Amino acid sequence: MNMPKPKYVFVIPCSGIGKSMGTVGRKATYKVIEKLRPQNTRTTCLPLLTVGDQETLNKVRENPCISIDGCPTKCAQKNIEASNGKLKKSFMVIDTLRNHKNLKPEGIIELNPEGDKLANIIAEEVATAVDEIMESEC
Amino acid sequence: MLTSIVKNKVGIVSCSGEEIPEGTISRIATRLVLEKLRPEETVTICLPLFLAGGEGERTFARLFPTITVDGCEKRCAEIGTKKYSGKPFATIVVTDILKKCPKLKLKSRDKLSSDELKFAEKVAEEVAKKVDEALGYEKT
Questions:
Q1: CA A18, CA A127: separation in Å to the nearest integer?
Q2: Fewer CB in 10 Å around end: N or C, chain A?
Q3: Residue A12 included in any domain
Q4: Contacts of A34 in chain B (CB under 8 A)
Q5: A80-103 per-position pLDDT tens digit
Q6: CATH class for domain B9-128?
Q7: CB-based contact A50 B35, cutoff 8 Å
Q8: How many domains does chain A have?
Q9: pLDDT digits (tens, 9 = 90+) for B47-106
Q10: pTM as predicted
Q11: What domain range includes position A85?
């Protein structure tokens, strides 16, 4: 039986308020949902999962999700998994950074240009994953 | 003991609020308190880490005063802090402060406009006042 095509892929970053990597993940998320794939993606507040908001639980259970975490603590991934969400792909900023060691992201309130560049690279990777998910779930 | 090592600290727990501009305001306001207004007196606690198993975060919030900064009436930071650690010393909700600025319409989730940044500074000042109350003194 063919499953109905999902309307949206939910891209959910960690809140990452203590580190530049968190800001990179957040910026990458906005790049995807506002510029690269606005028709197919949405985001939701991660803390709503943390506190068990039913409307948000339904969103992550009924739609494919992509997590973007800043660090190996993987708060976004773990919160989606603990909520029984449909996690299809997980990204970690430091993984991408390992392939672009020349970039040194700095700043949390205001990310430096290298951080912006890293966010753009991750956003492109996430957009490709969104396409694959939309394709596979047809 | 943690309490003997860390003194006079207040934990600021911000909602991350990825979905709405008010969440970005709460996040930036929190960082302004941490980096500029009360850098010596405050630390931040990552809210989703409460659930992801951050025992250090839970312990800190049990032992030290916390101030929650929420973007909206869903009050995730306040609820999460109460659920996993204890009652916060004070709670701030961005939409409550926004009511005092009826002309301001928040739009940005990513890069704040100058008006939005000024508003974030205003929220940060409110948080800083609560930090001073929590520590029992007024900063001049």
A1: 26
A2: N
A3: no
A4: 109-110
A5: 999 999 999 999 999 999 999 999
A6: alpha beta
A7: no
A8: 1
A9: 888 767 667 777 887 888 999 999 999 999 999 899 888 899 999 999 999 999 999 999
A10: 0.89
A11: 38-136
